[in-house]
Amino acid sequence: MEQKAKELAMIIEQAQNIVAFTGAGISTGSGIPDFRSSGGVFDQISGRHYSGEEALSAPFFERNPALFYKNFSETLSFPDAKPNFSHSFFYELEKMGKNVTIVTQNVDGLHEMAGNSRVLDLHGSATRWLRVADKQEVAFETIHTDDKGIMVDATGERVRPDIVLYGEQLDYNVITDSIRAISEADLLIVVGTSLQVSPANTFVETFRGKHAVLINRTKVPMMDRFTLIAQTDSDTFLKEVWNVLEKGARA
After folding, report:
1. Which segments constitute the Deacetylase sirtuin-type domain (predicted)?
2. Mean of the pLDDT values across residues 31-58?
3. Which residues face 144 on adjacent strands?
């Protein structure tokens, strides 16, 4: 991987507009499980009469709100999670003067926590909470669980995490901004995603730049679209890349 790390470092040095398209794999190093692998989120919340996807769907939330909140709290709420090196790497690129846009399928808020100024959350953020009635944001500190297992704000109004559930539409403006950022980028770095979730997986097809890089443990659809592929752990690989960039800066 050393040679590939050197190649990516050289590509980054020459690029100005960089998009990182990230999925659950980038956050596993922060202790957050991915969705589809064995032992992942879907496995954890699948019940006798429902699948993992169903348990995170809008109809399920309406039919079984108390069970939805329980599943969410146990599998998608990670208040103690911190950004890992892969998250911080892209903030460091921004500090170097690169125009970095993060397009993420994750809802953990770790890219924002790492410091990146432009993060497009395709599926929303589990760190934000909204009143169900009027979609107004509510401070998490004011939320509690009532005696029926329903999460409510200080006034007793039901709340929900600001995430896109199965059966709901992605935010049109976020989609538009994501496609524009990818299509205008010099460099696209795809990290920790199986590229199986539609429509987000189709966004990669809008990239028109010279270098598309994949950092993922397993193969994905559209492998032929990538000019550099590192089938490995993102933290390990990006540390190698950063070491090369630092040496170049000191030279």
Report:
1. 1-251
2. 66
3. 152
Active-site residues: which are they? Answer: 123
Concatenating the DSSP letter of every residue in 41-103 gives HHHHH-BTTB-HHHHTBHHHHHH-HHHHHHHHHHHT--TT----HHHHHHHHHHHTT-EEEEE
Q: Please state whether 42 falls in left (phi above 0), alpha (psi between -120 and 50) or beta.
A: alpha
Listing DSSP states for 206-227 in one string gives G--SSEEEEE-SS--TTGGG-S
Taking the CA atoms of residue 21, residue 178, residue 52 and residue 232 in that order, the dihedral angle to the nearest 10 degrees is: -10
pTM value is 0.91
pLDDT band, very low/low/confident/very high, at 250 (cuts 50, 70, 90):
low
The two three-digit tokens of residue 57, written as one number: 């769907």
- Options 2.30.39.10, 3.30.540.10, 3.40.50.1220, 3.90.1150.10; CATH of 2-32+83-123+168-250: 3.40.50.1220
Where do the structural domains in the chain lie, given as residue ranges?
A: 2-32+83-123+168-250, 41-75
pLDDT at res. 201: 84
Percent of the chain at pLDDT exceeding 70? 92
